[in-house]
Design goal:
single chain; 5-stranded mixed sheet
């Protein structure tokens, strides 16, 4: 028994001693150290990760770290732009010096159906990264591109909260829309309103045809690829970003005062005398002294807020990124009639089920509500609330007390009109004429609301059966539900703008369901250590289902909020309904082949074949084929360069590309086809009795030859880096020829009895240079960078079919009944301003127009080019600086050579802008006499003349920001890894000669470019923000 106990005891001790090394190996140990750069400066945010696990930390403000790991673990130190290091854990202090990795300057950029190193690119692609977007007060993704990349122009028809600006890439290629293709995480989208700018990781703009050709028929106007954020490997964190801003009117052009307005009225109308002025005082209309500041009446400072909460994490098996965003954007108008609310949730996740299988999901849900008012984006100044601010007579009071109403307003009430009041019971003045409507009355003409929700995303799987080969299958989906509501209030604004009893209501709903299924293979391999070959082959199928329904009544039973809807029509109301459903499908095949020899010579070719369904093009022309080829030469990798390089250059590459893209953006709904339409009048087919039967005829002439618009583009480029990669520079020259434009203004013989279908009848050329440059450096604790871009543009219509009406296409945007002021015509830029030219003013101050035809009569045939909305060049510049815990940024953009056509008023020649008033013609010659004498005649032609064309060149400082990051010793007390506070001034400084509210103005994105109808202007903001990471 005793011997048995001894044997067990000895076995226990033997097992214990044998297990000690194993237990020691498994017991945790604490490692710590300090991480610095080449200059010995501490590095903040370096990832310190136990290899093969998710156990990791990041360095603090002093570059220090500490981490509990297993005995013998391998520690991975990584930071963007620096060489990743792997070291075995030791008990001694592990201090690390990180080395800059020049190869990471070769950042990876997203291209169609794949990624490429920037140094391998042979096409023209510009990138905007998350750091270019973060902490800006923008609410729309499109705004992030303005001024940040060459060749991209933003067109805004209104700056109301929630409004959608339009992007133009390398000019204007069509008589219709020229919108680029938007792709979010591989999903083609038509609207970016659901994407929060804070969730963007990068945006790539595919500008040349070779880069965009892989998207074929949809890429004729460029492609914008958007990649949203995902979990960062080796870290897990929770972050919160808060932004609070106060918006106000950015520009307040000086307006005339009451005395000046009345003097001008006397000049304008000889029958208006001092007796009429005295009558204004006697009737209580004017107190004889005051000048109403209509800016203060209409605008005020408004608060907005933006909250973002992010959860993210990743390890070797997978990653996730969850973001919650809440935006409230309050415009600058009183009464909160211009607001935008958006609640959005985004989830990106992926997981490696097997070493050869990775699955993932991207999902974005957004819910929005928007309130808006009528401004110049409605297509005219007559209904623009903003135009009323600029034109309302200053001697009219803002409000009149109920017991002191002018006689004219008392008469209106007696006649049954509804006069609107403020919250104190005072009546808003309604004494103006034509478009001179009180701003608050203009705001209350109707109550409008847009609301809806969207869900979009992708489900995907990547299969990697062997090295270099990846098969991807991806299902994209997009659900959009958009609703509108409008109620027309009873009001009286002027004799021309009032609503006595038509308190109608309307609602509409549009729903879109879109599916996109894509399968593609990427394969890359190295041959004999010198040759690198990669290939991509795939297919895509998509289906879009759009349904629209609407209902309306022109009069409701009672002017009361409880009855303000279509369900409560008045007994004599006119009711209307509408609805339709559109389904279209597309099938595509695409491929790309690339070859690289020793990182010196690159060659790439791509092809895409697209088939549209017959709702877009005839079956005989549904297929389009879009090829491209590009090449690159990295001179800096040549032996003669590396061995004898006595220059500061470290990288030099030449690029060339050619390709074709297409567009059918101006086609849908069987426009090429015809259908039978009936006429109740009919024809009599009897010789004896006059009996009429319903007749039928083709709606239009059928065009079986209609085909894609096609853009062919040549691009030559150069990229270089110098001075130890502190300086970077890129340049491109391009020529883009777009042919077979889809045109509808076709003249056919009257005998045809109907109209022509659209036909391919025009060509446009865009060409220009693009430059992008950057410099970054450091001196001790001070770091700074400067980036700039500049793009030139020359645009011209080179061909129109002879059957196009009048040899030109007249713009759809007009100035009341005076006609169109823009045109699409051979030899001129797209949608140039076409109007009358003022030759001089006669001795009475009347305008004398140039008789360009010499027939002695001034009519529409004498119109000529008086300006153009497109700039000769656009530019942007960004400066950043960091000193210890402080950071500073200033960013601005501008344009040169574009004109603006001002059309606030059109029924008479008069001036409410002080700058124009002071230069009007006066009999005594006390002014410069630049503008015609105020008068009620000649307004139809003078308002459509070069007198109202102004230089729209500008430079706007869009952001000045100062930030401070709290020391780690402070933040660790409340468990935070990083906390930054900042303040910025957005859009505070504008340098321009344009005398109106905003030089960045357009009535529409096509024929109304550069037209100022009184559009909602850009606002300036004081912004306060906080970012904290746990």
């Amino acid at each position: 028994m005793e011997n048995n106990f001894k044997r067990k005891l000895m076995a226990f001790w033997l097992f214990l001693w044998m297990g000690i090394p194993f237990m020691l190996a498994q017991s945790p140990m604490m490692i710590s150290g300090r991480i610095t750069d080449d200059l010995g400066e501490p590095m903040i945010g370096v990832s310190v990760l136990e290899k093969g696990t998710s156990n990791g930390v990041i360095t603090n403000m002093e570059g220090n770290y500490s981490l509990k790991v297993k005995q013998g673990a391998v520690i991975v130190y990584s930071y963007i732009g620096y060489v990743t290091q792997e070291l075995k854990a030791v008990s001694e202090r592990m201090n690390i010096t990180m080395k800059e990795d020049t190869r990471t300057l070769d950042e990876v950029v997203v291209v169609g159906y794949g990624v490429q190193k920037k140094s391998d690119l042979t096409g023209a692609i510009s990138s905007v990264k998350a750091e270019d977007i973060q902490n800006r007060s923008i609410t729309r993704v499109e705004e992030a591109l303005q001024g940040k990349t060459a060749g991209v122009q933003l067109i805004s028809t209104t700056s109301q909260p929630g409004a959608s600006p339009t992007i133009r890439v390398r000019g204007f290629s069509s008589n219709g829309t020229s919108d680029p293709l938007y792709v979010v995480d591989g999903l083609i989208v038509s609207d970016l309103s659901a994407v929060d700018p804070n969730n963007i990781k990068s945006m790539e703009v595919l500008k040349d045809a070779a880069s965009a050709a892989i998207y074929g028929a949809q890429a004729g106007n460029g492609v914008v690829l958007i990649t949203t954020k995902s979990g960062s490997k080796g870290t897990s964190s929770i972050s919160y970003d808060f932004q609070y801003s106060i918006s106000s009117l950015a520009q307040r052009p000086k307006l005339i005062n009451s005395q000046e307005a009345l003097l001008q009225k006397k000049e304008q109308d000889p029958t208006f005398t001092d007796d009429n002025i005295q009558e204004l005082i006697t009737s209580g209309t004017w107190d004889g002294v005051s000048t109403t500041d209509w800016y203060d009446v209409a605008f005020n400072a408004s608060p907005s807020s933006h909250h973002t909460v992010n959860f993210q994490g990743a390890n070797d098996k997978g990653s996730f990124f969850l973001s919650l965003n809440n935006l409230y954007d309050n415009g600058i108008l009183r009464e909160n009639k211009d607001t935008y609310k958006r609640l959005s949730v985004m989830l990106n996740a992926d997981y490696n089920i097997k070493p050869w299988l990775k699955v993932g999901v991207t999902a974005n849900y957004a819910k929005y509500t928007q309130k808006s008012i009528n401004d110049g984006s409605a297509g005219n100044s007559y209904s623009s609330m903003i135009a009323t601010v600029m034109t309302m007579a200053p001697y009219y009071a803002d409000t009149y007390a109920a017991d002191a109403l002018p006689k004219q307003m008392e008469a209106l009430i007696a006649n049954g009109f509804t006069l609107l009041r403020n919250d104190k019971g005072a009546y808003y003045s309604c004494l103006g004429s034509m478009e001179q409507i009180h701003p608050m009355v203009a705001i209350r003409m109707s109550d409008k609301k847009n609301f809806g929700n969207s869900l979009m995303g992708t489900l995907y799987a990547n299969l990697t059966p062997f090295k270099g080969f990846v098969f991807t299958t991806r299902l994209g989906y997009r659900e959009l539900n958009a609703n509108t509501y409008q109620y027309n209030n009873l009001y009286y604004g002027s004799a021309s703008a009032n609503n006595k009893d038509k308190n109608g209501a309307s609602r509409s709903n549009s729903s879109t369901t879109y599916y996109q299924w894509e399968n593609f293979v990427n394969y890359s391999t190295d041959l004999w250590d010198k040759h690198h070959v990669s290939a991509m082959l795939g297919m895509s199928y998509s289906e879009n289902n759009f349904t629209y329904v609407s209902a309306g009544v022109d009069k409701t039973a009672k002017h009361d909020p409880l009855y303000a809807d279509v369900s409560y029509p008045a007994g004599d109301a006119v009711k209307s309904t509408a609805g339709y459903n559109l389904i279209n499908r597309k099938l595509s095949y695409f491929g790309r082949l690339a070859y690289d020899y020793q990182n010196r010579y690159m060659l790439q070719a791509a092809m895409r074949a697209d088939a549209a369904d017959t709702s877009v093009l005839p079956g005989t022309n549904r297929w389009g084929y879009f090829p491209s080829v590009s090449a690159g030469w990295v001179i800096s990798n040549e032996r003669f360069f590396t061995e004898k390089n006595n220059t500061p250059l470290t990288f030099l590459k030449l690029r060339a590309s050619w390709g074709q893209n297409g567009s059918t953006s101006n086609l849908s709904g069987y426009k090429y086809s015809n259908s039978l339409v009936t006429s109740a009048a009919g024809y009599s087919f009897s010789n004896t009795a006059m009996k009429y039967v319903t007749s039928a005829k083709p709606s239009q002439l059928y065009n079986p030859d209609l085909k894609w618009e096609t853009s062919e583009q040549l691009d030559l480029g150069m990229d270089l880096r110098a001075f130890n990669d502190r300086f970077s520079f890129g340049m491109d020259w391009y020529q883009k020829k777009t042919k077979d434009l889809i045109v509808s203004n076709i003249v056919i013989p009257y005998e045809a009895g109907n109209s022509s279908a659209p036909m391919n009848a025009g060509n446009v050329t865009n060409k220009g240079f693009e430059f992008e440059a950057g410099w970054k450096d450091k001196a001790g604790d001070f770091n700074y960078s400067v980036t700039a871009n500049l793009a030139t543009l020359k645009n011209e219509v080179t061909y129109l079919d002879p059957h196009v009406s009048g040899g030109r296409i007249e713009g759809a945007t007009t100035m009341a009944s005076n006609g169109s002021f823009s045109a699409f015509e051979v030899g001129y830029p797209v949608w140039y301003f076409r109007g009358y030219q003022v030759d001089h003013l006669d001795d009475k101050g009347n305008p004398v127009f140039r008789d360009n035809t010499g027939d002695g009569t001034i009519d529409a045939s004498d119109k000529a080019m008086i300006g153009k909305p497109m700039p000769d060049f656009t530019y942007g510049i960004t400066l950043t600086a960091n000193y210890k815990n402080f950071d500073f940024l200033i960013f601005g953009n501008g344009s040169v050579g574009n004109d603006v056509f001002m059309s606030y008023s059109y029924n008479s020649i008069s001036y409410t802008l002080k700058e124009m008033y002071d230069q009007r013609w006066t009999a005594d010659g006390t002014t410069s006499r630049k503008f015609a004498r105020p008068q009620n005649t000649n307004a139809d032609k003078y308002g459509l003349s070069d007198a109202y064309i102004f230089d729209g060149s500008y430079f706007r400082i869009k952001q000045i920001q100062l930030g401070y990051t709290l020391p780690r010793t402070v933040t660790k007390k409340f468990l935070a890894d990083k906390l930054r506070v900042y303040a910025s001034l957005d859009n505070f400084f504008l340098f321009t000669k344009y005398p109106g509210l905003d030089p960045e103005v357009s009535s529409t994105a096509t024929s109304g470019m550069g037209v100022d109808y009184g559009n909602y202007p850009t606002t300036k903001k004081v912004v306060f923000g906080l970012s904290v990471t746990f």
